[in-house]
Amino acid sequence: MATPVQQPPQSSGGKRKGRTQYVQAKRARRCDGGGPRQLEPGLQGILITCNMNERKCVEEAYSLLNEYGDDMYGPEKFTDKEQQPSGSEGEDDDMEAALKKEVGDIKASTEMKLRRFQSVESGANNVVFIRTLGIEPEKLVHHILQDMYKTKKKKTRVILRMLPISGTCKAFLEDMKKYAETFLEPWFKAPNKGTFQIVYKSRNNSHMNREEVIKELAGIVGSLNSENKVDLTNPQYTVVVEIIKAVCCLSVVKDYMLFRKYNLQEVVKSVKDPSQLNPKQPVQAGNGKEAKLESGDKLNQHDPAEGTNNQQVVPENNEELGQAKPRSETQVVNEGGAKPEFESQVTERSESNENDLS
């Protein structure tokens, strides 16, 4: 009678697959279309802050960006894999030419797989980065905010702020200086000029110094054209500096204060405070200086990612400000009308940066 053949024991030892293998497989599936998986130097896109619901934030961002992206640039075109270009065989006898054509076909097929908007890992909590391709982020975001500002129609629930990122570089001072010298030229190099301010925010980064960064960037703007002036009240341009881990995101935006610091929740609200409808009236502070009050305390009252540090410069005798709101932004101007020093103005403004959730 034949004995049954026994199966050899499996060498796996019954071990389950490790968590890292699942994570790697998930990332591979998510990035099958090519492109970077996380925020890195050399990208353009849109940085979005949200309130504890990143998945819903990404869904809202795709919906909003596709709506306005189709309006500005036309519908996104998709190409099937079967329709991807392929080099003709037997036409080129030269091996070098055939190799170049093959490399070109690979690059073209990769570009066709990339979507116009693609979410990548930002490296910070409550922050979403949408990588863009073939569009100008600052124009698209400005168009979105301009339409929402005019119509007062709320289109998002969890998205808080939406900042265009026109360029990224390594978050080290020397790299930022070298990159900013050419990045800022289209807005500030002669004959171009304008008033500006600098806003700075850092997340998950401890080696960068806010004052040094602002001082260096302000110096670069001044060196491009001596007629570039600091304006902390209503600047033509706002230089946005967002640092996440070892990546620095830069952009230059317009109407930063008009569009409530690019906050989608606040830009749709109607102005109800009478003090916001009337021109700013100077108030005499106790130290003999004139203080201009901005009613900016309501800009971010429903934005948990903003924080409460909105005060620029506090006069010595706060008691004589009357009924001024305690969180209103305050700017001090000398009696003779002279503006503060070039770099110190920008540094004072940086104190009112938004403390987004991180």
TrEMBL record:
Gene name linked to the record: THUMPD1
Gene3D superfamilies membership: THUMP superfamily (3.30.2300.10)
Species assigned in the record: Leptonychotes weddellii
Role according to the record: Functions as a tRNA-binding adapter to mediate NAT10-dependent tRNA acetylation modifying cytidine to N4-acetylcytidine (ac4C).
PANTHER family in alphabetical order: THUMP DOMAIN CONTAINING PROTEIN 1-RELATED (PTHR13452), THUMP DOMAIN-CONTAINING PROTEIN 1 (PTHR13452:SF10)
Basic and acidic residues compositional bias, start-end: 289-305, 338-352
Annotated transmembrane regions: none
Pfam families attached to this UniProt entry: THUMP
Protein name: THUMP domain-containing protein 1
Subunit structure: Interacts with NAT10. Binds tRNA.
The family this protein is said to belong to: Belongs to the THUMPD1 family.
Xref: SUPFAM superfamilies: THUMP domain-like (SSF143437)
The THUMP domain, residue ranges: 147-254
Biased composition (Polar residues): 1-13
GO molecular function terms listed in the Swiss-Prot or TrEMBL record: RNA binding
Region of interest: Disordered: 1-38, 73-94, 273-358
Keywords: RNA-binding
GO biological process: tRNA modification
InterPro entries, sorted: THUMP_dom (IPR004114), THUMPD1-like (IPR040183)
